[in-house]
Predict the 3D structure of the following.
Amino acid sequence: MSNTNEMQEQWTEMVEEMNDAVADSLEQNMKAQAAFVESWAEAVEDSVPEEDTMAEGIQGYNRAYEVWMDAAEQMFERTTDAAQGEDVGPAEFRDIWLQSANEAFKEVMSTSAFAAANGQLVERMMEMRREADDVSQETISQLGFPTRDDMDEVGERLVELERRQHEVEQKLDRILDHLEE
C-alpha cells in the first residue's frame, strides 16, 4: 500500500512539475509575444504605409499568429501525452516555443511593411545622430576646443602643403640637374 501511495505522490509531483513548466513556458511566450507586438507597433506607429504594404503587414502578422496558435496546440497535445504517461521533458516544450517564435518573427520580418518601418526607423536614428553630432560639435567649439571641421581644415592644409613641398622639391631637382649639365 505504501508503494501505491509513493507512486501516486511521484505522479502528482511529476504532473505539478510539468504544469509549472508549461505555465512558465506560456508566461514567457506571452511576454515575448507582447514585447514583439509592442516593438513592432512602435516601429510602425508614426507611419501610414500604403494600403498594399499595410495589408501585407497584416497578413504577415496573421501568419505569425497562426504559428503561435499551432505552437499552443502542440503544447496542449504534448501535455496530454505527458498526462497519459509518455515521457515528455520540459526541454521539448521550450523547443516548441523557440521554433514557433523564430517562425513567427520570420513571418512578420519578411513583409514589406516591416522593411518600410525599419527603413523609417533607421532614417530617424540617422537624423538623431546628425543632430546630436551637430550639438556636440557646437558645444566643443564653445568650449574652445577644435571641432571636427577645424581638424578637417588642418588636415586639408597639411595635404596641400605636402603637395606644394613636393612640387618645390621637383623644381629644385630639375634646377640642380640643369646646373650639373
